[in-house]
Write a structure and sequence with these properties.
179 residues, alpha+beta, Alpha-Beta Plaits, 4-stranded mixed β-sheet, two-stranded antiparallel ribbon
Length: 179
């Protein structure tokens, strides 16, 4: 089974609660890394304007380009649920994975000797039968998670949302209901 995130763009208000919850749960520094990011897009011309938000983390791709690019074999895909994980003990900080990820999910804290890091799908919470913290924190219930096949069957679900890179090569495990 491949776990995936579901993002309902019609519900998101751009509040960044998912970002703050992730930073708090994982004790991430405020200035350097964001394992989950919310982007805002303004489109159109007056009087026909629209604003949309996009909440994205690591997409835990079926064919992760980051893992393929890693010369240290520090990035692996967990067979039981498809979560892509980084082993900081193996990571040399070469940044090859950062260049390979089209979603900007892999980040470094900026200091010399920094190791690659990214969303781990709150694997610690999943082990306790809890939802990822970004999903649990979303006040508008715009985020959800589950089996990729089930999420992709939801009404309005798409795999090619506006403002997302084409995931055909990596097969991103992100399902979006576009606005």
């Amino acid at each position: 089974m491949q776990l995936a995130f579901f993002f309902d763009q019609t519900r998101c208000t751009g509040c960044h609660t998912c970002v703050v919850a992730c930073k708090d749960w994982h004790d991430l520094p405020a200035e350097t890394v964001n394992w989950r990011r919310v982007s805002t897009y303004e489109e159109g011309k007056f009087p026909h304007v629209r604003v949309s938000h996009l909440s994205v983390s690591c997409c835990h791709c079926a064919n992760p380009a980051c893992a393929e690019a890693c010369p240290e074999d520090a990035i692996s895909k967990r067979p039981s649920d498809g979560i892509v994980l980084i082993d900081p003990e193996k990571c040399s900080g070469c940044r090859a994975c950062e260049d390979a990820c089209q979603y900007g999910a892999i980040q470094f804290r900026g200091d010399n000797g920094s190791k690659a890091e990214k969303c781990n799908f709150c694997s610690d919470r999943l082990a306790n039968k809890e939802a990822p913290v970004c999903v649990a924190a979303c006040p508008m219930r715009a985020l959800d998670y589950g089996a990729f096949k089930e999420l992709s069957l939801r009404p309005g679900a798409t795999l090619n949302a506006p403002h997302l890179p084409d995931g055909l090569q990596t097969t991103a495990s992100l399902v979006v209901k576009s606005k």
